[in-house]
Structure formats: structure tokens, C-alpha cells
Amino acid sequence: MHAPSGVSERIALGRCNAVVGLQWGDEGKGKYVDLLAGSHDAVVRYNGGANAGHSVVVGGERFSLHLVPSGILSPGRLSVIANGVVVDPETLIAELDGLRGRGVDTSGLVLSDRAHLVMPYHKVEDALREELLRTMRQGGPEEGRLTEIGTTRRGIGPAYADKVLRTAAIRTGDLLRPEVLRERLELACWAKSAMLAPLGDPGSPTRFDAKELAAKASSWGSRLAPMMRDTTCLLHSLLAQGRRVLFEGANGTLLDVDHGTYPFVTASSTGVGGIGPGAGIPPRALETVIGVVKAYSTRVGGGPMPTELHDPRAQYIRERGREYGTTTGRPRRVGWLDLVAVRYACMINGVSMLAVTLLDVLAGLDELEVCTHHEIDGERTDRFIPDATDLARARPVYARLPGFKADLGGVRQLSDLPAEARRYLDLVQEATQVRVGLVSVGPGREQTIVA
Ligand code: IMP
User: Fold this and answer.
1) CA of residue 3 to ligand 1 center, whole Å
2) Contact of 364 with 413, CB cutoff 8 Å
3) Of ligand 1's atoms, which has the minimum distance to the CA of residue 330?
4) For the purposes of burial, counting CB atoms within 10 Å of the CB of 59, is it exposed (0-12), middle (13-18) or buried (19 or more)?
5) Is 214 exposed, middle or buried (0-12, 13-18, 19+ CB in 10 A)?
6) Ligand 1 test: best mutation among 152, 323, 333, most atoms within 8 Å of CB?
């Protein structure tokens, strides 16, 4: 596995950089993080948990990562899971074992001693809440009404909720403090059993035993202890030494708990705003923000998506783009590129450069549509509304562009792209007023154009 062809050297990067998704996740961030990792000393996850699914193809081999930063595939770098991530210890250990089994050196993994844990009861709680919401809407879904969120059921929301509720939350460092751990587990198991038992079907695991969990937790602790550190201190000392750090946002800006399509969002701050609380790095340290935008839109789970397609073109794009969830396998909802949403996400993140992905997927369509405005209650606007109830009323206003036929997989220069594909990229730049610096035309590291 070798470093790619000097992409980092050809784009202007600072010492402290971030890659974030500008849509509803699955933008292809993993590929760019992997490409840029080789020229950074550390790659850092600061939000989310095993709900994320980053696919990276190296040497024709596909790796699906959920908790481990994509930087793990670049030997000699630190891969940091910072305090803002919610860590499912079983998933993390299984992921590390899987990587080692495929010959990947995982010795660079560093885990914050203050990251909160996703416990088995969090996953049960997530699933039961979703079931409850699903049954509440029986009788027919109505646009804008409360339905299940369509979570990944990885326990992300309940783990963050317990973090904010404080008393029964467990952090990675607690795995190494048996007294603290026992006390917290007793409280958590009592509270979760009392709360969840009335919701569960007979036979589903809604009673939790503190002793049983303590035994499991102690084995997680022994495995994870050598990786645990104060990651805030580590990152500050790297930056003070002039080393380069890359922050890898998980999920996507439109799923941000504050700035996304609430309540159909995830439970963390997915944009660069999450780096402060999630890794202890002050906002002013950040120099370059690379915003990753897929050439069309996808969304998994519920919530409004103004440009969603319900015709054969959706299936065409879904199959060509392999648009099935990395974490859950669910078919993703597919639609045209929504520049109202992307422009908003650029603003929220202070994006310095756009990195477009999956442009090759659009080849073969006669006409391409791009949403330039929303129309709400008969009024045209270029303002994105980060609220599910109001956004459900938005209708897309499209610009229509001619499609392109050629297979883009072998293109390495912007000038070799068909004129129609270049026009498409120009429109993205015009609408966002942000330069397109990178274009991906296939999953391989080499299938990347530096614009
Ligand atoms: P949760 O993060 O599992 O609570 O799910 C909340 C919403 O975010 C659901 O609609 C999920 O499908 C979506 N989601 C969470 N993580 C990702 C991701 O990495 N890619 C795409 N969608 C995600």
C-alpha cells in the first residue's frame, strides 16, 4: 500500500486540516482522508461512532471502516479516536482484529481515555425507541410528522444522551478503574432495565446485569489499555512541534445535531464545529477545510430530501454508485445534487476547497438536473432550512444540463473530462463560490483529478 501520487503536495494544505462531508453522509470522505493521510502525522476522528462507514479501496482491496480512522491504511501515521467519539468497544476490537488479519499495521491507533462508551444497553435502547416510533405512525406516514429516525441502531443517540445526562455514563478510562466502573454499571443497569423492560418483547434483552457487564468491560479494558492516552494533549503537542494533523468528520453536515435537518439527524456535531469539543483543538487552529460533495445526493434513513428521485434514474445511479449502506446495507435514497444544501454546508464549515466524488457515476444519463433553488409556499429561495418540518415543504428548482456518455474512470486531467462534465463542475463552483480542487472518478486512489 503506497502513498498516492502527491495529491497533498499539489493542493495548498496547512498544518491543521479537516475533511468533512457536505451532504447526508456517504460522500466518499474516506477516499480523500486516505489520499491525504500520507502527508499528515495524525488522522483524527472527533465525532460519531460506529454509525459511520468509510470505504477505502487500496490496491484493489476494499476496506470498510466504522470506528478506526481511515488513516490506519497509511503506515507510520497516528490514527486518533478523540474524546468526542462514542466508542463501541466490541466493534472497535473486532475492527482492529479484522484489519490485523488482513495485514494492516494497527500499532498507530490511539484512543482517548475520555471517549464515552456505547454499551450493549444503548444499542437495545436505540432499536426499541425506533420500533416505538414506527408503531406510533401506523395508520400512514404524513409528511413532516414524527416517525422513526431510521438510525443505524448502533446506540449512538442513547450513548450521547447518557453523556449529557452524566451520572451513568462510562468513559474509556473508567474501564481501568474497577471501583468507578462497578458503581456506574450498577446505576446504569438498574436504570436501563427499569426503563426498557416495559418496551421490550418478552425474551428480548432488556434486563442488564452489572456483574456480567463488568466482566466483559474488564476484558475490553485489558485490550484497549495500551492504546489509551490523553489525546487532547497529544494533538496539541504534535501541532506545537509543527506536525500535520487531519481531522476526519464522520456522517455529514446535514446530519449535524444543531445544523442538520433536525430531528432527522445524528446525535453529534458532524461539521468542523465538532472539532473543538470533540478533540480539544481551538477553532482558530484549523487552516484548511476540504468539503466533500458527491456529484448527486443520497440519504439513508428518514427525513426530508428535496431532490429525491423516485424513477428508474434513481436505480441507475444507486447501482452504478453502489449506494447501499456500509454500516447497515440499506439501499440509499438517491436524488439530484442539491446546491442549496451544499452552499449552506460550505457556509457552516467555512469550506476552503471542494472535493467532488463519484462524478463517473453520472455517465450515461441523457440529461442532468441540479437543484439551484428551493421553492417554499410558492416563494423561491436560495436559503437552506435546517428543520425537517419546514424543509418537507421545499420543492426543488432545477437547472438542466446535458449529460455525458464517456466512462470517466481513466481520466486524470480536468481538461480530459467531457465538456458537459466540466460544465457540471463549473456550476457547482459558481453556486458555492468555492473552488473545486479535487475530483474523484472512481474508487481507486489513482482515480483522482487535481483541478
Ligand atoms: P444514528 O447516527 O445511528 O443515530 O442515525 C441517525 C441518522 O443519521 C439516520 O438517518 C442514519 O441513517 C444517519 N446516519 C448516521 N451515520 C451515517 C453515515 O455515516 N452515513 C449516512 N447516514 C448516516
Assistant:
1) 30
2) no
3) 12
4) exposed
5) middle
6) 152
Q: Which atom of ligand 1 is nearest to the CA of 154?
A: 3
Question: Residues 28-42: pLDDT tens digits?
Answer: 999 999 899 999 999
In angstroms and rounded to an integer, the radius of gyration of the C-alpha atoms of the chain is 22
- Chain segment 73-99, per-residue pLDDT in tens: 888 999 999 999 999 999 999 999 999
- Grid cell 434514474 is found at 313
Pocket test for ligand 1, best of 251, 298, 357 (most atoms within 8 A of CB): 251
Of the candidates 15, 304, 78, which has an alpha carbon nearest to the alpha carbon of residue 70? 78
Residues marked as catalytic: 26, 54
C-alpha 407, offset from chain centre: 28
Distance CA 451, CA 449 (A): 6
Q: Tell me 46's DSSP state.
A: -
Quote the cell numbers at residue 251: 456522517
Q: What pTM was estimated for this model as a whole?
A: 0.95
Residue 440 Cα to ligand 1 midpoint, Å, equals: 23
CA of 222 to the centre of ligand 1 (A): 30
